[in-house]
Amino acid sequence: MSNVSIIGIGKTNVREHWDTSIRHLAWYAIEAALDDAAISKVDSLYVGNMLAGQLSNQNHLGALVADFSGLRGIEAVTVEAADASGGAAVRQAVLAVKSGLVETALVVGVEKITDETGTPVNAALASGLDADFEAIQGLTYIGAGALLMRRYMFEHNVEVADFAGFSVNAHANGASNPMAMFRNRLKPERFAMAPLVADPVSLFDAAPTGDGAAAIIITRTERARDMVPQPVEIAGSAMATDTMGLHDRKDILRLAAAANSASRAMEQAGVTPEEIDLFELHDSFTVMAALSLEASGFAERGQGWQLARDGEIGLDGRIPISTFGGLKARGNPIGATGVFQVVEVAQQLRGQAEANQVDGAKMGMAQNLGTTGATAVTHVLRLS
Amino acid sequence: MSNVSIIGIGKTNVREHWDTSIRHLAWYAIEAALDDAAISKVDSLYVGNMLAGQLSNQNHLGALVADFSGLRGIEAVTVEAADASGGAAVRQAVLAVKSGLVETALVVGVEKITDETGTPVNAALASGLDADFEAIQGLTYIGAGALLMRRYMFEHNVEVADFAGFSVNAHANGASNPMAMFRNRLKPERFAMAPLVADPVSLFDAAPTGDGAAAIIITRTERARDMVPQPVEIAGSAMATDTMGLHDRKDILRLAAAANSASRAMEQAGVTPEEIDLFELHDSFTVMAALSLEASGFAERGQGWQLARDGEIGLDGRIPISTFGGLKARGNPIGATGVFQVVEVAQQLRGQAEANQVDGAKMGMAQNLGTTGATAVTHVLRLS
Questions:
Q1: Which CATH architecture has domain A4-117+210-227?
Q2: By the CB < 8 Å criterion, does B275 face chain A?
Q3: Who has the most CB within 10 Å: A13, A93, A314, B350?
Q4: Positive or negative CA dihedral for A133, A138, A142, A143?
């Protein structure tokens, strides 16, 4: 079975793209990835997307995006797992190339939220929760984050202000990323003054949804080495699920799927958390960043927030996270987010992160979560 | 690279399931497939579904169905390609097992249309077309079928009544399938009396949408032989796309994606159309049956309809199609249809089709199309 490497990456910036349709967003990222790989065709396409059916009345994105991107005729499909759709699409592409039936696979994560009609955005986002047992009771995506944060504060005896470090770090990194949605630095003392969105989640705890697309191209590692100067190997790839509803979890502060997928991905790559140089995690809410660090072996239970307090998550810290701003400042283009994470890890390993570079980064990890961690996809990357 | 075989199959009947939710439908089919394979767990789940987000406010079906079906924790994802979602999900499972990273994969195609709220069904179905260039102009799923049928009639000089044989055959086979949506036989003389749905497509040309679920379980062929008495090998698997919009095709009467995927799947299996004993094709409209037969090498261009006229598509004909009623009489549960097709071919090869048995069936093919053939997935099956 072949190893798999990334030979091309591309992305749009994340913002309100009032003037750009979903097919254009996908195409811009694909064009950049094809240029980066210096190729003009691929064998198959995996589109990570959650909301196009509900927000754009557009399903069947595989055929649409292939056609519009000048790749008419290739195998193409949409992969959906709520806000883990992008990571799940990367996972399908890895399986496809490893199968030997597909030589070169393209993944594009794309989401278009601004200026769309159809279902209201918060209702569409809530379709990632259990419709019959959560959403119908009024629970929203942000409300679920609030339940987790409240419980974390209660159980671990921490306060709202203790989460500030995650947002301050994300905004610091976003400030130097020209593709980020928010490029303003956040002063720690401003954090506690933010308006509440869903108590205790404030505007500075919650990542903003945005429009955008990111793409990667992968092929067998031995082939990749002949094609590009710096192929990035996908050394570990794992996906897992947890209960759909929070109410079914024995312990809502343990992200079982994240733990499962992270440990298996690291085992495949033959590394421990200590050897990971940066970690693009799913900071949809500050509490999710803390829980992901704990689930993935970077902190003990209840202590993830301390990494932020102690400055360990910065670009020169023990475990840099959200190095381009994360979901919080780069923005959260839902079904595209997981592909953005992989692109950013690849940029770091290729030494192309510019002002956001983690010095000497040789091993990186990306973890994409669906809603409250009902789905988790983890990839470990290193230079081939 | 391992070959892949089916070790379990299951399905619900197709009808208006007023009393059954989408998770229950999926579970019933999964339970039947697990029982058939005599196993209780699998490594990953691929859900074929198109409409749950729009009709049931429920995305994230991978995690939901895994959880509800007693498979909590496994890798799980939704695969979407309009009404080819089921076939596309089978394709992803095949790639997953062939990759060596997944040992046993479960596929469930599921769709729930009856009694759902949200987007009107015809608008949701139209999301499989190009939203910006087709659906927004008022084109519907059925309207697209009507355009194809009208052009076929014009170019090949045939009349509405010449399509009757497809529906008569489908209803004859549906009549003896206890799981079919329509179990009434159709008299040829009644065909021309049917009310129009979208001129020239009548009620008897168009397949009815219905609720239902079908499931298969696959693993490596060498392992399958030790597990079940009659594993069915997936000897060929291919997927392709065409232009999204009909207006972009140089020749709308040639299903390029169907032709591409069928020829590659047959090549992988090392067979020619003459060696295929039955063909579960995508008869969403009678004209689609004719076009699929032509694209897949069973008839010359413009002559597919003659196979129906001449009785060649019956259970004892040259190329039996829609052997359990097809989309027309078994019913078309959109995102589940492609999995129903594969289950039905497996039943034929295992000699378990009862009154619908094609005598001596050794090699079967299933072809699932997205809308007007913008996506096509073809699988060739034989006893392992």
A1: 3-Layer(aba) Sandwich (3.40)
A2: no
A3: A93
A4: negative
